[in-house]
Amino acid sequence: MDADIDQKSLLSIDGAWLRDALVAGIHHVIARRDYINRINVFPVPDGDTGTNLAMTMHAILVGATRKINSDVGKFLEQAADHAIDGARGNSGAIFAQFLQGFHEAVEGASTLTAHDYAEATYNGSRSAQMAIARPKEGTMITVIRDYALSLRAQIKEGVEDFRDLLQVGLERARTSLSNTPNQLEVLRKAGVVDAGAQGFVDLLEGIQEYVETGTVTSVLPVGLQLDEDLAPEHLGGNVEDVTHRYCTECVVTRDGLDRRKLRDQLLELNCSSLVLAGTRNKVRVHIHVNDTADVFRICEDFGDVSSRKADDILAQTQTTHSRHGRVAILSDTGADLPEEEMERLHIHLVPLRVNLSDRQFLDKVSLSSSEFYELLRSSPEYPRTSQPPPGDFRRQFEFLTSHFDSVIAVTVSRAMSGTWQAAQAAAKRVDEEQVKTFDSMNASAGQGLLTLFAAEAAAANLNRQCILDGLEYLRPRTRTYALVPDLSYGVRGGRVPKGMKTFTDVAHLSLIIKNNDEGKIGPAGVLFLRSDAPRRFARWVMKRLNHKRRYRLLVAHCDYAEGGEAMRQFLEQNVKGAHSVLLTAAGSSIGAHAGPGSLVVGVQEYISAEEWQARWKEQQAGNGG
Q1: Is 142 helix (H, G, I), strand (E, B) or coil?
Q2: Class of domain 477-611
Q3: Omega before 497 cis (within 30°)?
Q4: 219, 247, 522, 554: which one has the fewest Cβ atoms less than 10 Å from its Cβ?
Q5: CB 512 within 8 A of CB 530
Q6: Across all residues in the chain, what is the average pLDDT?
Q7: What angle do CA 502, 503, 509 make, to 5 degrees?
């Protein structure tokens, strides 16, 4: 759009001008997202700084720039509030606090002079620095400070025109950016500038383009394709550099919130990269830790906690260093798989939620499987599981699409959960062509086996359609069975009628359940007697196998490791031609309903990625594809 700008001088700006300039800057950052990701080596080399900045700024676009507000103070109040709500990562939180400090300096103003702008920028710089628990020179905060000091110096020299002020300020920011490798050793070794600082300079360059042209691009790219011309090998950082595994964030809300005390308590944890961005009533917490539960527990003492998330920095860092093929594989924590398989194949996870009274946990992240079963046994209230919000999937999709050609999300059965719908909603927001969701029609071990096949196929560099067709082929050939010795938990969760529990108790029966072709779970049989249950259940499963076929099996135990290992060994010894029999702990998705002591087994007709690719190519040739 054209802006009404005096080409000779610009002595004051209103909210409408500032809004257009900020939109131009934000668009420039979003367009540079992929490059910023590639130079990201500090504080951890997880390749997501560009995405975090882009999504933080996108929250401003969506929430504060749709409607033009000519009042500077009111516009900035909205922009800062939406930035704090949508802040992502270390860089996003710093920028949100910069914007909050800027707003506080001009609150109530309808227009800004060059002097007002310089002082507000300086206040934003100080506010951002104070939000960082342990600031480092040579980072985003250094460039913001140098930019702010340059503006103040110009004002002292009598500069009144925004055009001159912003042009000289931009040059100073560029110089400061180029100096960051001299201030931070990890940048010097990698041969890059700081990624967050680069994003801030990109923002200023977009604003400068608006100053010079008076126009902004009105179309926002929804998703960015991987640009192979800008995809050199990752320039620095190692997986070993990851000291704290989870990038943990949440929003804490309470009138008169004591930010300093909250910060001090969080600093007592084994942590890094702590940033608190917000006001006296609302704070976004960003912190890197190994134990996310401690973070949420502390935050709950200070107010209402929302927008909980914990991204696996180790998984993201491994992704930036070794792309396994062109397709990324993601699942939710309804899938049960051995951790070593998850790490070997770089499978990404979105955690389900576990709710207990007014507390919420992230499945397998802030609440381990063993902790969940302890809670299940000891709590008078029944823990309930719920699907992840679409935003959790969207955040993962955005990161993965910036590193891979496409993404496949294998979810728990939509007949049992709204997780697939959440993933599909997120895929539509990111790029439906680049992100595909697949309903496993399974849960636990069966879902895990389908995810495992997809990940092995992706590692073998099979293309997306070949993998999706392989999943379609294997889905009806994958079954999940569970032996439930105690129906009490199913009754508490509302999934099992009380009469069924009474009957099985009197008859000394253990119920067996399985998934059907519609993805629903239902009774499949019973076992008399409860002695030697693992082997008896294994024999029951073996009777359902076609021994002329080859199988892969996965045993998942509900806090019953001894029984799980006994069942695994029995199946391994007695299923002729079994490709493999794996063992893992079952998570809350099935454990909440089956209860401690239950055993789950996933059974899948085995076909290797290479065998499937050869068969698929023959099918394509036969169909003229």
Answers
A1: helix
A2: alpha beta
A3: no
A4: 219
A5: no
A6: 88
A7: 110
Nearest residue to 186 (alpha-carbon basis) of 303, 80, 39: 39
Taking 50 as the threshold, does the pLDDT of residue 236 lie above it? no
Q: How would residue 243 be classed by pLDDT, with cut points 50, 70 and 90?
A: confident
Per-residue burial over 140-170, b = 16 or more CB atoms within 10 Å of its CB, e = otherwise: bbbbbbbbbbbbbebbeeebeebbebbebbb
Other Cβ atoms within 10 Å of 547 Cβ, number: 10
For strand 435-439 and strand 406-411, is the pairing parallel, antiparallel, or unpaired? parallel
pLDDT of residue 359: 80
Contacts of 212 (CB under 8 A, 6+ apart): none
How many whole angstroms separate alpha carbon 433 and alpha carbon 419?
Answer: 20
Q: Does domain 240-312 have CATH number 3.30.70.260?
A: yes
At residue 320, the pLDDT reads: 60
User: What is the C-alpha separation between 302 and 281, in angstroms, rounded?
Assistant: 11
Rounded distance between C-alpha atoms, residue 304 and residue 282, angstroms: 9
Q: Tell me, what amino acid is at 500?
A: M
Residue indicated by tokens 């802006």? 3
**What CA–CA distance (Å, rounded) separates 9 from 38?**
39
Is 180 within 8 Å of 42 (Cβ atoms)?
no
Q: Give the count of beta carbons closer than 10 Å to the beta carbon of residue 61.
A: 18
* Four-way CATH pick for 12-217: 3.40.1780.10, 1.25.40.340, 1.20.120.450, 3.40.50.720: 1.25.40.340
How far apart, in Å, are the Cα atoms of 53 and each of 95, 187, 344? 8, 19, 29
Q: Residue 109: enclosing H or E segment and its boundaries?
A: none
Q: Where are the domains of the chain?
A: 12-217, 240-312, 477-611
pTM score, whole prediction? 0.74
Sorted by sequence, the CB contacts under 8 Å of residue 382 that are 6+ apart come out as: 489, 492, 493, 592
